TrEMBL record:
<protein>
    <submittedName>
        <fullName>DctP family TRAP transporter solute-binding subunit</fullName>
    </submittedName>
</protein>
<keyword id="KW-0813">Transport</keyword>
<keyword id="KW-0732">Signal</keyword>
<dbReference type="InterPro" id="IPR018389">
    <property type="entry name" value="DctP_fam"/>
</dbReference>
<dbReference type="InterPro" id="IPR004682">
    <property type="entry name" value="TRAP_DctP"/>
</dbReference>
<dbReference type="Pfam" id="PF03480">
    <property type="entry name" value="DctP"/>
</dbReference>
<dbReference type="InterPro" id="IPR038404">
    <property type="entry name" value="TRAP_DctP_sf"/>
</dbReference>
<comment type="similarity">
    <text>Belongs to the bacterial solute-binding protein 7 family.</text>
</comment>
<feature type="signal peptide">
    <location>
        <begin position="1"/>
        <end position="25"/>
    </location>
</feature>
Length: 337
């Protein structure tokens, strides 16, 4: 997925920059009647990925069906900038709602990135439980205080898996492999905790880097592996499930300017999307994996020693994380007791 050029992003931003200003008329006392307000919702995914079809579109439909004089305009595929650019735009009010990975949000509040720590959550249900049990409340408050951005909800967009030209079944199998990890601090910490040698390569350049042998392997959710055709340049898909690929739904200052009725409609729409996402991701992944097996396009390794990986990463994070980041990690693990 390519971002728009700088000039195109500027034009897109110019088209929506005035929108949040219209929300001020709604007031925040629950009794505003400033007419219809429009929210912009941005994300980096293609229109056929679950984050769009079962995420952004569900939020849009839920809000607009509520009949509270509120509409949502979606800008997919990084049309309004990459992750690092968009969180700044959410803070400034140029984008109202964004779907972001926790690691990208760490640019404005570092401890939130710990949500993406390797094996922090054993599965999508554990992540959902953390966000619905109240255990996340302190993190949400601290994030809001640091960034003036609200976390409305979160889901797992599937577990991240390893691909390489040899199987990865245990931590020792990563020795000597040049594994591509995203360049955000939490992902690089994950590489260390997993025992991998991290090599930074842009997502858009990953296929070519694998094809040319610049890197030996990589890690991504199955839907991303499929979207970039990585099975064409990798021999093994090792089902390590080493990280729940988090998506947080965040909202900037416009959220605080909504009426209580509009806030409730938006909150309910986000909750609906959060509820639907696991089924959508599971269906998409099953279709992809069934296709791989039918076409024999890549060998699927399903006997990965995830317990060995999990024990290793847990010990590493408890020893190396500090302060608020360690507190977040411990709160995640405590929520699973």
């Amino acid at each position: 997925m390519k971002n728009l050029t700088k000039s195109h992003r500027a034009l897109a931003a110019a088209a929506v920059i005035a929108l949040p200003l219209g929300l001020a008329a709604c007031g925040d006392d629950g009794g505003g009647s400033g007419g219809e307000a429009k929210l912009t919702l941005a994300h980096s995914y293609t229109e056929d990925q679950p984050q769009h079809t079962c995420g952004a579109e569900v939020i849009k439909k839920g809000v607009e069906d509520a009949g509270v004089d509120l509409t949502v305009e979606i800008f997919p595929a990084s049309q309004l900038g990459g992750d690092a650019d968009r969180i700044a735009s959410v803070q400034s009010g140029d984008i109202d709602i964004d779907i972001q990975g926790a690691s990208a949000l760490a640019a404005v509040y570092e401890p939130v990135g710990v949500l993406d720590a390797a094996y922090a959550f054993p599965d999508a249900d554990a992540l959902d439980n953390y966000f619905t049990s109240g255990a996340v409340d302190q993190l949400k408050e601290d994030f809001k205080a640091a960034s003036d951005v609200s976390i409305l909800g979160a889901w797992s967009a599937g577990a991240r898996q390893f691909t390489a030209n040899e199987p990865i079944r245990e931590p020792a199998d990563l020795d000597g492999l040049r594994m591509r990890f995203p360049g955000s601090p939490q992902f690089l910490l994950n590489a260390k905790a997993l025992g991998a040698k991290a090599t930074e390569v842009a997502y858009e350049e990953l296929y070519l880097a694998l094809q040319q042998g610049v890197v030996d392997g990589q890690e991504n959710p199955i839907v991303n592996i499929q979207a970039t055709n990585l099975v064409e340049v990798q021999d093994y898909l090792s089902m390590s499930n080493h990280q729940q690929n988090s998506n947080l739904i965040v909202a900037g200052p416009a959220y605080d300017d909504l009426t209580d009725e509009q806030k409730s409609a938006l909150d309910d729409a986000v909750a609906d999307a959060v509820e639907q996402m696991p089924g959508c991701v599971e269906k998409a992944e099953k279709e992809i994996l069934d296709g791989y097996e039918a076409e024999d396009s890549i060998e699927i390794v399903d006997d990965v020693d995830t317990e060995a990986f999990s024990e290793q990463t847990d010990a590493w994070f408890r020893e190396n994380l500090e302060g608020d980041s360690l507190a977040v990690y411990e709160s995640i693990k405590d929520s699973q007791q």
